[in-house]
Amino acid sequence: MLSRISTVEMSREEWLEHRRLGIGGSDAGAILGLNPYKSAFDVYADKLRLLQDRPDNEAMRQGRDFEEYVAKRFCEETGKKVHRDNSIIHNTEYPFAFANIDRAVVGERAGLECKTTKCLNMRRYKNGDFPSEYYCQCVHYMMVTGFEKWYLAVLVFGSEFLIFEIVRDDDEIEALAKAEHTFWEENVKKRIPPAPDGSKNADNVITALYRDEGGNCDLEPVRAELDKLTEVKRRIMELGTEKQRLEQIIKLFMQNNEGGECNGYRVTWRAQERAGIDVSGIIKDFVPKDTDLSKYYKNTKYRVFKVKEN
After folding, report:
1. Which residues contact 143 (CB under 8 A, 6 or more apart)?
2. Distance (Å, rounded) from C-alpha 31 to C-alpha 136?
3. In 10 A of CB 72, how many CB atoms?
4. What is the DSSP string of 138-202?
5. pLDDT band at 118 (very low <50, low <70, confident <90, very high)
6. Residue (of 41, 39, 49, 40) closest to 19 by Cα position
7. What's the confidence (pLDDT) of residue 291?
8. Residue 7, burial from CB neighbour count under 10 angstroms (0-12, 13-18, 19+)
9. pLDDT for residue 213 is more than 70
10. Residue 22 exposed, middle or buried by CB count within 10 Å (0-12, 13-18, 19+)
11. Rounded to whole angstroms, how far apart are CA atoms 73 and 96?
12. Cα–chain-centroid distance for residue 206?
């Protein structure tokens, strides 16, 4: 059974709070590890308010502003009609999830997801393909709404307008529902972080979770990881040295030439300049010696992670 919460008079802050009460379409790909810009750690941190909300950027603003244009272009291209669904949709069969869809297609059990992107991302749309995180988002919406189909319309700024059709697959919906349910019950509700994925975002969340320090612990349960970490660091050092050696051979061959080409490669070796500010020089020349500059100093506290073999 479906239920709806109207978003007509809801502020953005209220909307963001409602998003933390369940898993949304944009969270699905991240939970499955299929979103290159957002990790399961991001979703975990957001639901539990462990990090500050990301500030609105230009890409996010343009995505919202061009949503209506993308919907109109979809109607022009397909002859279909759509209407805005100003609500947060819940399904009693999936209490851990919600859907905040862009448009519903009139006369069909189908929805429309509107996206905008830049030309530099066109490689993600080659041969009729499209980003995996968009696919997961559409599958999530079909899961919550019960719709049979979802359309994905993508405006590539100054270049193309693309339309994709995704048909409901109950096996995929079941798999996604299982993954989302496990994440919500075992990670979010129990406040247990998901498995690390090596991303910078995961690092930020771990740092935010454990700011305090003191005492020692028995590391035997992670002995295998320490052994592997030590081996990886050794290999990185060896590869770094090999990288330097190969670059040196190429530089010796190039001598004073600033560039060169061969089949499959273009190499440049050019001088560059970078301007910087000599803060100590400015203080010496323009600031009186007895001036108290302590209020301008910025101290940052952070934990340093080191591993040493005994």
Report:
1. 91, 94, 97, 173, 176, 177
2. 10
3. 13
4. HHHHHHHH--SEEEEEEEETTTEEEEEEEE--HHHHHHHHHHHHHIIIIIITTT-PPPP-S-HHH
5. confident
6. 49
7. 83
8. middle
9. yes
10. buried
11. 33
12. 16
Distance CA 155, CA 47 (A): 30
Distance CA 118, CA 199 (A): 24
DSSP letters spanning 242-307? HHHHHHHHHHHHHTT-SEEEETTEEEE----------HHHHHHHHS-TT---GGG------PPP--
What distance in Å separates the CA atoms of residue 299 and residue 292, rounded to the nearest whole number? Answer: 16
pLDDT tops 70 at residue 120: no
Give the helix/strand (H/E) hosting 134: helix 132-145
One-letter amino acid at 170 equals D
Cβ atoms 138, 113 nearer than 8 A: yes
User: What does pLDDT average to over the chain?
Assistant: 88
Residue 83 identity (one-letter amino acid): H
Query: pTM for the full model?
Result: 0.74
pLDDT confidence tier of residue 152, bands split at 50, 70 and 90: very high
Please name the residue that has the structure tokens 């090999």. 242
- The C-alpha R_g of the chain, in whole angstroms, comes to 26
